[in-house]
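INTERNAL AUDIT FORM
Audit reference: QA-55
Scope: verify that the stored structure record matches its stored sequence.
Auditor: D.O.
Record contents follow.
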Amino acid sequence: MKQPVAPTFLRPVAIALCGLALLRPAAASAHEDRSPWWPTAVFTQLGVAENANAAVLGVLWDWSWRRDVGWGRVTGYWEVSFGRWASDAGGSSAHAWVTQVGITPVLRLYTGGGDTGWYGELGIGANLLLPIYRSEDKRFSTKFNFGDHLAAGWRFGDRGEHDVALRIQHFSNAGIKDPNPGEDFLQLRYSRRF
């Protein structure tokens, strides 16, 4: 009989949420004096796939580039993520743990202009999965994989400091080596901007 993944999986999530709660937004003047290497936001994310769960933490660097178009504003950001996947490893009650490290450029479109409110986004980036991902019915053939996502979200707050998004993300090696079954996650993300 399979044991549920959720209880063990939730421990890193609880730690991540406590860490986010300790962060304090920086003053507006301090924001202007910050190094460009200092992130503009942090995030925590939970994901579920057919036979796996994921908890991800990361940082974002907003781009200074913005383009207003007739129906909104296009901008973007760089994302660096660190996550842990727990998957059903097969017939045993043990779980396979995979560490994910990724970097992704992301394009975002805000509806109605401005940098707050409803948005859609897409991104594709490079990810390292250690060890090679395996689940009950899938086995990746490479440690290097691409992660592409589509998301819809809402940025809100007095300064636009809160951001909640629902994402669909696909991981695969894009045919570099077979087998290449890929894995699809449904993800919920909360970001906090400084």
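Auditor finding: record pair retrieved intact. The longest strand covers residues 72-88.
Action required: none
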